[in-house]
Specification:
- With 371 residues, the chain is an alpha/beta fold.
- Helices cover 58% and strands 10% of the residues.
- The chain has 13 helices and eight strands.
- Strand 4, helix 5 and strand 5 form a beta-alpha-beta unit.
- Helix 1 crosses helix 3.
- The radius of gyration is 25 Å and the shape is globular.
- Bound molecules: the ligand C=C(O[C@@H]1C=C(C(=O)O)C=C[C@H]1O)C(=O)O.
- Pfam families: CM_2, PDH_C, PDH_N.
- GO terms for molecular function: chorismate mutase activity; NAD+ binding; prephenate dehydrogenase (NAD+) activity; prephenate dehydrogenase (NADP+) activity.
- Keywords: Oxidoreductase.
Length: 371
């Protein structure tokens, strides 16, 4: 490749022109966002739901058509608009949560509020207009409303969120029950079995308590397409109030039976994490550098590698807990080992029938999925 030499003036002129085009694109995208925010206000005033899939399809179809006449690949135009629509939905969702101001300045306490999910919850409650306190030994105690020890925090808050590791959460919930805290209490853990006795006992003792599991990471902005699992632990009123925290968002709140939660999570979290850890472990052991493989990646490998990289970047202690503390975790991992053995035997056979069976079974299992 040619190194940097004196730049051809025609090249420079074209790059200058391109910079102007880019600046224009960004200005237009900003203008789009302002219009979208206005549309959001009108929809909110009219009590309409924010997301309008039919309108989005129209927008995408229109830009695809426009792209063709403009000499741009329609897929590029669609990708670009999807990204912008995402940004507009995020903006409309955040505006709506803020405008609804359900917290109305009332107190909320997040125990474990300095953790990653804890910080997300603090921001989320703050945007709803709650006055949020944080109890966490890792938080900066000089900040107002911050307590190293949760016992010293305002336990009469209207809302007490327990965002600590599972074992700590069980002990905290027991103590909250002993102290008969008056507000709505919920934990947000990924694993519920270690908490179930404490949660049920607290509800039995009259606490306004339920259990929540947000199915997204702490860097999530837009809640459209995200799930929030909600578990009744013996207090119906708590389920209703906790669900209400999400009504101004586009998250889908799904109620799950408390004793089913971990069985389902063994697959949704445990199996998908395990599969990716197994995948990158096999790559590490291959002795071939990731860069080299990425440099010759296929479509599937590229997607798989991106997921594996995200999984590898997660907190090892949390991921170990998700495997270890889920009493159904072992079953899911054994199912994975058995599936690999089955696949291996089917791959070694000269007759493709067994392999084909696996593929076709998977196809019919998955083909009904909505896109
Ligand atoms: C802007 C609107 O809100 C949302 C965002 C859209 C967009 O960015 O184009 C389209 C439909 C809605 O889901 C709208 O309803 O028109």
């Amino acid at each position: 490749m040619a190194g940097p030499g004196p730049i051809d003036p025609r090249l420079q002129a074209l790059r200058d022109e391109l910079d102007q085009v880019d600046a224009g694109l960004i200005d237009l995208a900003g203008r789009r966002q302002r219009i979208v925010a206005e549309i959001g206000r009108i929809k909110q005033g009219a009590g309409r739901q924010l997301r309008d899939f039919r309108r989005e399809r129209e927008v995408l179809d229109r830009v695809r058509g426009r792209a063709e006449s403009a000499g741009l690949d329609p897929d590029v135009a669609e990708d670009l608009l999807k990204r912008l629509i995402d940004a507009s939905l995020t903006r409309q969702e955040q505006d709506r949560v803020r405008a609804a101001g359900r917290g109305e300045g009332r107190q909320a306490l997040v125990i474990g509020g300095a953790g990653l999910l804890g910080q997300w919850l603090v921001g989320f409650l703050d945007s709803q207009g709650y006055a949020v306190s944080v109890a966490d030994p890792a938080a900066d105690p000089t900040l107002p409303g911050t307590y190293p020890d949760w016992r010293q925090a305002p336990l009469d808050a209207e809302l007490v969120v327990v965002s600590t590791p599972p074992k700590a959460s069980a002990a905290i919930i027991e103590e909250l029950a002993e102290r008969r805290v008056p507000g709505l209490v919920f934990d947000v853990g990924s694993i519920k079995s270690p908490l179930i006795p404490a949660l049920r006992a607290a509800a039995g003792a009259g606490l306004n308590i339920c259990s929540i599991h947000p199915m997204f990471g702490p860097d999530t902005q837009l809640l459209s397409g995200r799930h929030v699992l909600l578990m009744d632990v013996g207090c119906r009123a708590a389920v209703e109030s906790a669900g209400a925290l999400f009504v101004d968002t586009m998250a889908e709140v799904v109620e799950v039976a408390l004793d089913q939660h971990d069985r389902l999570m063994a697959l949704v979290l445990g199996l998908s994490h395990a599969l990716n850890i197994a995948f990158f472990t096999a790559l590490v052991r291959s002795g071939i550098q990731a860069d080299q493989l990425a440099g010759i990646s296929s479509t599937t490998f590229k997607r798989q590698l991106e997921i594996a990289r995200d999984v590898a970047a997660e907190n090892p202690d949390l991921y170990h807990e998700i495997q270890r503390l889920n009493e159904h975790g072992g079953l899911a991992r054994r199912a994975l080992v058995e599936a690999v053995e089955l696949l291996s035997a089917a791959s070694d056979a000269d007759d493709p029938a067994a392999f084909t069976d696996l593929m076709l079974e998977g196809r019919s299992y998955l083909e009904g999925l909505g896109r």
